[in-house]
Specification:
Elements lengths: L6 H4 L2 H6 L8 H52 L4 H66 L10
Length: 158
């Protein structure tokens, strides 16, 4: 019986693939980079959580202060006095409430901006470092592949 041979199955795949210079990545370096990425995200999340917690605490304090101020204002408005005196006290209360509200919003906005800036700063720095690391790993892999690849044979002289 005649044996069927196909040239495709007789081919040495390693010799065929050797002509393609596929860079070999340093997996330890890549894993270290990913570990740093996770650490940066964790730190940014922790910073964001702490910032939001502080923001919520401050909002609670502002709400409590507002209720106390309203209670005091109602007592003052209910106190004896002429209509004109009560109108002046009411206008004063409204002005103070507005000024306090604007100051509170400004404070909360600043707190939120600082939290966002800190968390984004951590992520931004890590992305920049990560890109540098990846570039270094790829460049190192390319150099290693160049060094390990067999040199092409010089054409035979006639």
């Amino acid at each position: 019986m005649q044996k069927n041979t196909t040239p495709v199955f007789d081919m040495d795949v390693t010799k065929y693939l050797a002509q393609f210079r596929v860079p070999l990545f340093d997996m330890d370096a890549m894993m270290a980079a990913h570990r740093k990425n996770v650490e940066a995200v964790t730190a940014a999340n922790q910073l964001a959580f702490e910032g939001v917690s502080a923001l919520m605490r401050r909002q609670g304090e502002i709400a409590r202060e507002t209720l106390e101020n309203c209670s005091t204002a109602v007592k003052e408005l209910m106190a004896d006095g002429t209509v004109e005196e009560k109108a002046v006290r009411q206008a004063e209360f409204a002005r103070n409430a507005y000024d306090t509200g604007v100051a509170n919003v400004r404070e909360l906005t600043d707190m939120l901006a600082k939290t966002n800036e800190g968390a984004f700063g951590l992520i931004n720095n890590r992305v920049r470092e990560s890109l540098d690391e990846v570039q270094g790993v790829v460049a190192g892999a390319a150099r290693a592949t160049e060094a390990a690849a067999p040199k092409a044979a010089a054409p035979a002289k006639k």
